Amino acid sequence: MKKYFSFDQIRESIRCLEGYNPFFGITFLAAKAGRLPIGTRKTFYLDSENDLFLKKYYRLNPSSQWFFRIFRQNDRKKDWVRPDYAMKGLQAINTQSFQRAFIHPRNSHDWGWTRSYVSDLAQRLPNHRPLPLFHIAAWLNRNQSFSEGVTRSDIVKGFISDFFITSDELETLFDNSIAIK
Predict the structure, then answer these.
(1) What integer pLDDT is reported at residue 121 of this predicted model?
(2) What DSSP assignment string belongs to the chain?
(3) What gap in Å lies between CA 26 and CA 28, rounded to an integer?
(4) Cα separation of the two ends of the chain
(5) Could you give the angle at the alpha carbon of 124 between the alpha carbons of 122 and 127, nearest 5°?
(6) Which residues have C-beta within 8 Å of that of residue 66, sequence separation ≥ 6?
(7) How confident is the model at residue 89 (pLDDT cuts 50, 70, 90)?
(8) Is the distance from CB of 132 to CB of 10 less than 8 angstroms?
(9) Could you tell me which residues come within 8 angstroms of residue 181 by beta carbon, excluding any fewer than 6 positions away?
(10) pTM, whole model, 2 decimals?
């Protein structure tokens, strides 16, 4: 028998994630999935990758162009972001608020992580609170079916593997405590 995350679990995960900058749930993960190098750069179409990531994980209705807004650090009342969010809103966040974490020459498609990106990103966490790892994994896997015996730890391990999360990132950027319900 297959099982899914409950509505209550998804609602709790949304509540736990809303105070974080969208960078952490979109750009960071799209860049990690794209295996951005550390200390050097490669050609990487960040806006396009973010758009694909948004379409995969944040478009609730396949016939809609709008994306559900989980991360609400600045405006808790706004539920949706526009179809061009990756090219406009996120681009500004990536190149202004988080510029210190990237190696990115202006007007280029070259991107990489600086050697200090983990500590630079940690400074941008709200009140230096690490991102709740299980809750971001639950949100991203909300439509995924799981076998009956899967545990929260299994979900977290899958997330770490899927996004190539390093031990330094895990230790510094994420809260890896898993609340048992």
Answers:
(1) 98
(2) -EE---HHHHHHHHHHHTTS-HHHHTHHHHHHHTT--BSS-EE--HHHHHHHHHHHHT-SSTT---EE----SS-TT--EE-TTTTTTHHHHIIIIITGGGEE--TTSSEEEE-TTHHHHHHTTSGGGPPEEHHHHHHHHTTT--EETT--HHHHHHHHHHHTT--HHHHHHHEE------
(3) 6
(4) 20
(5) 90
(6) 59, 80, 81, 82, 83
(7) confident
(8) no
(9) 9
(10) 0.93
Residue 113 dihedral angles phi and psi, to the nearest 5°: -90, 140
Q: pLDDT value at position 6? A: 92
Q: Residue 61 and residue 118: Cα distance in Å, rounded?
A: 34
Q: Is the distance from CB of 38 to CB of 121 less than 8 angstroms?
A: no
Q: Is the dihedral of CA 123, 166, 53, 38 positive or negative?
A: positive
The reported pLDDT for the residue numbered 137 is: 96
For residue 113, list its beta bridge partners. Answer: 38, 102
Give the span between the Cα atoms of 7 and 110, in whole angstroms: 40
What is the rounded distance in angstroms from the CA atom of residue 113 to the CA atom of residue 149?
Answer: 37
According to the model, what pLDDT value does residue 139 have?
Answer: 96
Q: At residue 67, does pLDDT exceed 80?
A: yes
Residue type, 96: Q
Please answer whether residues 112 and 39 qualify as being in contact, where contact means their C-beta atoms are separated by less than 8 angstroms: yes
**Tokens standing for 32?**
């990690």
Residue owning tokens 């090219």: 87
Distance CA 9, CA 134 (A): 11
